[in-house]
Design a protein that fits this description.
about 200 residues, 6 strands, binds inosine 5'-triphosphate, Maf protein, alpha/beta
């Protein structure tokens, strides 16, 4: 399987924050597009019980709709909180209900945690690559940290304002994007995907 000359990638997401981070992580050699340019495509029912299952489901579903020329990358990601038995997990985007805003999900998370002393948590990201309805490769990354008792910062998205990575004192929403993009779950999965893609391009 060869990459097209411009290293074009279709990101199987409607989450523009994800697309922005993935575009920055992949770098200028990749021209990325996401599903916001294809509003006619139906929503994908994320029925998997793991991030990897959902990433594969999204990559295969979208790649079947675009034919054999288009390389598709799907990211399924979320937050696992130990004191909540791993919730919100694969339900991270819809923790406070379908169509919930990031602020609703974060508020529910803080309410569920209350003043629990155990604040350990991690973000996880699974990436799947597919073409023409065939799975090409998968990659996973995680970032360990802890949950604060109130949001701090306004960068990023999702649960970033309440998550402090173990290597820093600031939340993902306080850290510059370059720092998040060096240490995040998405950065770790994407670095592996990038190495695979560049090897493919040079083969
Ligand atoms: P697509 O399925 O269209 O890609 P989505 O936002 O629904 O978009 P997911 O099902 O993978 O994507 O859910 C990811 C959720 O996990 C996201 O909405 C956030 O709530 C959370 N999340 C993932 N990565 C995050 C990050 O880097 N920072 C903060 N929250 C993140």
């Amino acid at each position: 399987m060869k990459l097209k000359s411009m290293h074009r990638l279709l990101i199987a997401t409607r989450n523009r924050h994800k697309t922005g981070e993935l575009a920055a992580l992949l770098g200028a050699d990749f021209q990325v597009e996401d599903l916001t340019a294809h509003p006619d495509l139906p929503e994908i029912d994320e029925t998997g019980v793991t991030f990897l299952e959902n990433a594969i489901l999204k990559a295969l579903t979208v790649s079947r709709q675009f034919g054999g020329d288009v390389l598709v990358l799907a990211d399924d990601s979320g937050l696992e909180v130990d004191a909540l038995g791993g919730a919100p997990g694969v339900r991270s985007a819809r923790f406070a209900g379908s169509g919930a805003r990031d602020s609703d999900n974060t508020a529910l998370l803080l309410a569920r945690l209350g003043d629990a002393p155990q604040r350990a948590a991690r973000f996880r990201c699974a990436i799947a690559l597919a073409k023409g309805g065939a799975l090409a490769a998968t990659f996973e990354g995680a970032c360990e940290g802890r949950i604060l008792d109130a949001p701090r910062g306004c960068a990023g998205f999702g649960y970033d304002p309440v998550f402090v990575p173990e290597t820093h004192a600031q939340t993902f929403a306080e850290l510059p994007a370059e720092v998040k993009n060096r240490i995040s779950h998405r950065a770790r999965a994407t670095q592996q995907a990038l190495a695979w893609l560049l090897q493919l391009a040079s083969a």
